[in-house]
Write a structure and sequence with these properties.
2% of the residues are buried. Helices cover 80% and strands 2% of the residues. The protein is built from 3 helices and 2 strands.
Length: 178
């Protein structure tokens, strides 16, 4: 019988005990109660061992659960830190990419403007060179015409003052003869 059975046995003895007249006290059989107490004492160590084992097992389970929870929390923190670091790396990479793109756009604009300025300067130089060449060509044409006229027998006065042009040619586009 276990400790609970022994306690029920004691309770039954007390309930069934004779009452003392004019009192709520009861007369219990001493030997019987002592016998039940002794049997309970003998059963008690086994019950206590079982209770201690249950408590120890419970504490071990709680310790394991705490340890598992701490491990899980640490893993969660590590994963959070890794994700945050990944986000930081991605954010930093995006910022760097944006900066590189902005620099490239700025450099592209600068190069385009420099190219336009360079082309404008070269075109202006080319225009000046063409104008000089056209003027030089016009002078050369005028000289050639005068040379032809001399060969045809134009008088020095006609040469000097531009006399009758018998072959129908006119001076070159508004250029004055020299």
């Amino acid at each position: 019988m276990d400790i609970v059975g022994r306690l029920q046995q004691l309770e039954t003895i007390v309930r069934e005990a004779r009452s003392m007249p004019l009192s709520t006290s009861a007369i219990v059989p001493r030997d019987e109660v002592l016998e039940v107490i002794e049997a309970a004492r003998n059963d008690l160590p086994e019950e206590i061992k079982q209770a201690r084992w249950v408590v120890k097992d419970r504490e071990e389970l709680l310790d394991k659960a705490r340890h598992d929870a701490e491990t899980l929390v640490e893993r969660g923190r590590a994963e959070r830190d890794r994700l945050v670091a990944d986000q930081e790396v991605v954010r930093a990479a995006k910022e760097e990419a944006d900066r590189i793109l902005a620099d490239a756009d700025q450099r592209s604009r600068e190069m385009r403007l420099e190219s336009e300025d360079y082309v404008d300067a070269k075109l202006a130089q080319f225009e000046i060179a063409l104008e000089k060449t056209a003027a030089s060509l016009a002078r050369s044409i005028a000289q050639a015409q005068r040379g032809r006229e001399r060969l045809r027998g134009a008088s020095p006065a006609e040469e000097e003052f531009g006399g009758d042009d018998t072959n129908g040619s006119a001076p070159f586009d508004g250029e004055e003869e020299a």
